[in-house]
Amino acid sequence: MLDKLFKCKPSEIFKLLSILRVDLYVTLYYIGFSIPMVILSQLVQDKYCINTLGVEVSKCVRLESLGPEFEDIKNSVLTYSTTFAVYDRLTTASPGIILSLFFGHWVDTYPNHIKYLLALPALGGCLSLVTTILNVYYFKAHINHLLWRSIPYALTGGALIVMSGSYTYVARTTQPKYRAVRFAVLDLALFLASPVATAVTGKLLTIKPWLPDQPRNYLIVLFVSFVCYLIGLIWILVFVNDQFESAKDSSDNV
């Protein structure tokens, strides 16, 4: 699809850029979604190592570089981290079947209001980040409280709704000659989100922690993710008008 993007005339590219509104939302959402995924496993390991096993913070933050005498602790931490990831995934993915039915019904009943459905995952992301930030701020809280972060994702559809809704939105609001190019832009946004999030997170974690009792600067990472979700939520609600774009495209085809 990307080869069609490079073959477009400058005037066509400018017109295409003027309607790339939902595409920016998808980019913001997936960067906000990917950033916590980068640190979640490390956060679980730190909380389990420090709070549950009672190991010193200085040792937990460099556990992978410690000698063979800490092998049992390493195995225990990695085992728990893997188990936690399974529970987290099940909590997030379980409502997917019901939400898929709801999404199909919404699109059929309110075809010109897909943006409200797309806004739900960003709202869920904000709520999930608030829960995670509280778990970081109260670092001594039980590690299982981190599972609460999965509930907002599960109830608002998460990435499933963003993927399905954005492609449906593009198909409904884009002229046929631009449709393949817009799908290529969406694919590019999905492709770039993960490496961008990984690079940003790696840089932010090296900054000195904001709070004295924190092993790493998780707060600034989660704050950046929250801002991405919040900007995306405002953007999709204020600047995306699916009714207007559909009418505009119809008039262009006359």
How do you describe this structure in short?
The protein has 254 residues and is mainly alpha-helical. It has helices spanning 2-6, 10-18, 22-52, 57-60, 71-93, 96-109, 114-137, 150-156, 158-173, 176-205, 218-238, 242-253.
CATH class, named Mainly Alpha
CATH architecture annotation name: Up-down Bundle
Q: Between the first and last Cα atoms, what is the distance in angstroms?
A: 27 Å
Low-confidence stretches: 244-254
Notable traits:
single chain; 254 residues; mainly alpha; Growth Hormone, Chain: A
Note down, in words, how this protein is organized.
By secondary structure, this protein is mostly helical. The protein has helices at residues 2-6, 10-18, 22-52, 57-60, 71-93, 96-109, 114-137, 150-156, 158-173, 176-205, 218-238, 242-253. The protein has a single domain (2-253), classed as MFS general substrate transporter like domains (Growth Hormone, Chain: A, Up-down Bundle), CATH 1.20.1250. The protein is built from twelve helices and no strands. Helix 3 packs antiparallel against helix 5 and helix 3 runs antiparallel to helix 9 (158-173). The two termini are 27 Å apart. Residues 244-254 have low confidence and may be disordered.
